[in-house]
Amino acid sequence: CGRSQSTALQMAPTREQRDSDAVKVENCPNDIFLVTPLKEVNVSWNEPVFSSANPIDRIEKNLKPGQMFTFGEFMVLYVAHDNENNIAEC
Q1: Which among 24, 33, 62, 84 is placed 20 to 30 Å from 43, CA to CA?
Q2: pLDDT per position as a tens digit, 30-86
Q3: What are the beta bridge partners of residue 80?
Q4: Which of these, 89, 73, 72, 71, lies nearest to 81 by C-alpha position?
């Protein structure tokens, strides 16, 4: 109705800017299925690679390569955060 947009709306990034700034997963390893008669087994994998237009602040993970695993199913999760609060998961 003839009013100018607020500064917050004018400064909001466009979808294209958000997409170009987003953290991207460059390499996420495939699932590992392992069957063994052992009670414990050491399992290793290549860690995922992330990239971003902004510096990556931290990468959180719930399990480490080379860790001992017992019977069961495990979901390994990596979450990369950049300094603009963008994230990506593998």
Answers
A1: 24
A2: 999 999 999 999 999 999 999 999 999 999 999 999 999 999 999 999 999 999 999
A3: 59, 88
A4: 89
